[in-house]
Every structure is written in C-alpha cells, then in structure tokens.
C-alpha cells in the first residue's frame, strides 16, 4: 500500500499522531536499554547485559511494528528523533529502577494510544494496541521483579547474575505480535 496520508498534525487522527510519537518513544527506549546493557557489560555483568541488550532489540521491534501498522494504513511515517539517554550511573540499582520507570511511562503512553483509538472509534487501531498493552504488563512485571532481586542482593551482584541466568531465559515469546517494518530481530 502506498503511504498517502499527510504527516502534518492537520492530516492525521489523534491516534495516528500519538502512534508516530510512540515510534520515537520506542526508539528512545531501545537506545536507553542499549546504554544500560553497555554499562553492565563494562562491569563484567554479562547476564544483566544480555537482559538489557535483548530489551533494546525488543523496543526496536516495537517501533518497527508501529511503523508497519502506519504504512499499512496509508500513513507516511516521519520517524522522530531519539530523546535524551541517561548514561551516568553509580550503582546497578539505578539502572534497573530507570528501566522500571521507563516501562511504567511507556505503559501510560500505550494506554493513551488505546484511549485515543477508542475515542475516535478506530477499532483496528484499538485492536493493534491491545497486543502492546499485554506486552507492557509483562515488561513492568519483569522489571519490578528484577529491581526486587537487586534490592535483595544487597550489593552482591554475583547472586543477582545467578538469578538472572537462571530465571530470565533467552527465549522470545512474541506470539501474536504485529508484523515489523523490515525483519524482526528478537
């Protein structure tokens, strides 16, 4: 399908405008997760690094799913830039707390998308967003649990790494996930 819809605010529904903004949020989240992964990698914490490298790829895929949806619906996406990325940390807890906060913020953004779709009676948009709402339940739960494990570890990152390697496997469960624009990497 050719993308014919204008990308100015005047030519798009509220839902499509918010979805375009969300593409930028997802790419920002991907970059932020990559920065967290590199921080852990630099400190010889490969399990935590792997978790966050994987999260980076997952957020990138979320952005490309949104781009694919826009393209399939005739919206020519003007890909937004990436927001500010935090890279200065002193202890592992700060990184996991940031990840949890980021997932909670994304959850609110996705809820806003769902609300806009419903308000505009965009039933296909609402259905599209439902997968992301379910995904956010998992993301917030995972980061909440990881933060609890880091707190219980009391600074013993060896124990945290052991838990991560045991409990956070490498499998990707993207059953029912929307199609990406370009190949999916996770």
From TrEMBL:
GO cellular component: cytosol
An example molecular function term from Gene Ontology annotations: ferroxidase activity
Presence of the UniProt keyword ATP-binding in the record: no
Keywords annotated in UniProt: Iron, Iron storage, Metal-binding, Oxidoreductase
Binding site for Fe cation: 26, 59, 62, 103, 136
GO biological process, one term: iron ion transport
Domain (Ferritin-like diiron) ranges: 9-154
InterPro entries for the chain: Ferritin, Ferritin-like, Ferritin-like_diiron, Ferritin-like_SF, Ferritin_DPS_dom, Ferritin_prok
Cited Gene3D superfamilies: 1.20.1260.10
Name of the protein in its database record: Ferritin
Annotated source species: Streptomonospora alba
